[in-house]
Design brief:
The chain is about 75% helix and about 0% strand. The chain contains 16 helices and no strands. By secondary structure, the protein is mostly helical.
């Protein structure tokens, strides 16, 4: 076995060990969401300490299929019937994204001096991987984009639970699903099939976010045709939390002091600007009666789709309402951001 491969396995083994230790620490102290925040905190600290951590590659991607199936299984006939009631609040999302761009692009370009391509895709509240890829193709700095978006997700996934527990007085201990032993075996097989087939078929056709959207589409079909009636078992949801936390923490491997002062600091301040916009839109949809306070808050929180799904599940929010809004946001950003960049003539040589 090549030495490089052996070292890679050692690094991944160390990453798993540190993540497990973080989970055990959080669990022993009864801290919230130990399977999410335990590996996240442990890997983040280890990465900042310079330890040679390494992501789990396809295994981490596979874990996201669980989230896709959970979302799809939550798209029931009742949710579809309620879609017309969501039109008013969903119609605000393009305005929300436009305002984020109007604030974010000048912030990154004028205040921190990033080139226009980096500034444009740093401001877009889309998926981390997609924004890094689009940004790099447009001439942006992929490392800066990765750190800025990782910081956005890290802060939001950390702060939102505090707001939920302190501001909304909501417990994070809502049952996340039935245990695997209590679920029909044929539905488990259908969910596994939806996860794997949806993921790989999505990749084959070039579907963005294939690991989540592919399984989500197939699981939604199974749910709407009355073939599945459960979300993935609680053990699978906990495993997905573990992998998501690990991946966020590992995103900071190799970060330098200069990157912390510029890229990470820019991400932190941008999240403060995002929080103001998110609060305004939450107030609007709640005041107009488009949403209840909890669902309005979660629907407009600019976090990652997978992370917001986890939080919506653990607080017992209306998952259908929250996810519809995040799906529209992500789809709008993914499809419109590159088109808008071309329209605005953002080129690789723009400074």
């Amino acid at each position: 076995m090549p030495a490089r491969h052996v070292n890679s396995l050692k690094d991944r083994g160390l990453t798993l060990l540190i993540s497990a230790a973080g989970t055990a620490f959080f669990y022993a102290l009864s801290l919230p969401l130990p399977f999410l925040f335990g590996p996240l905190a442990a890997c983040l600290l280890a990465a900042l300490a310079g330890l040679p951590l390494k992501g789990l590659g396809s295994l981490s991607v596979a874990a996201r299929t669980i989230i896709g199936v959970a979302v799809g299984a939550s798209i029931t006939p009742e949710v579809v019937e309620r879609l017309p009631d969501m039109v008013a609040s969903v119609s605000l999302i393009p305005i929300y994204i436009a305002l984020i761009a109007a604030v974010g692009v000048p912030f990154f370009h004028k205040v921190y001096g990033f080139n226009l391509a980096t500034s444009w895709y740093a401001a877009m509240p889309g998926g981390l991987q997609d924004m890094v890829i689009f940004g790099q193709e447009a001439g942006g700095d992929p490392r800066a984009l990765s750190l800025i978006h990782a910081t956005r997700v890290l802060i939001i996934i950390t702060i939102v639970p505090l707001i939920l527990t302190k501001g909304f007085d909501i417990s994070l201990n809502n049952p996340i699903g039935d245990p695997v032993v209590g679920m029909p075996w044929h539905e488990l097989l259908l969910m596994v099939a939806a996860a794997l087939i949806g993921w790989k078929a999505g990749e084959r056709i070039g579907l963005f976010g294939a690991s989540i959207l592919g399984p989500m589409i197939l699981a939604a079909i199974l749910s709407l045709t009355d073939l599945i009636h459960f979300r993935p078992p609680s053990e699978a949801i906990l495993g997905a939390q573990f992998m998501i936390g690990l991946a966020i923490g590992v995103g900071y491997v190799g970060v330098t002091l200069a990157e912390i002062k510029r890229d990470v600091a820019a991400g932190v301040l941008f999240v403060a600007l995002l929080a103001i916009l998110a609060a305004i839109f939450t107030e609007i949809v709640v005041a107009l009666g488009f949403a209840k306070p909890l669902e309005g808050f979660l629907a407009f929180a600019p976090g990652g789709q997978a992370e917001m799904t986890i939080l919506a599940i653990v607080v017992g929010a209306d998952l259908g309402f929250v996810i519809v809004h995040h799906l529209v946001r992500v789809i709008f950003v993914i499809t419109c951001a590159p088109l808008a960049a071309r329209f605005l003539r953002i080129r690789p040589d723009d400074k």
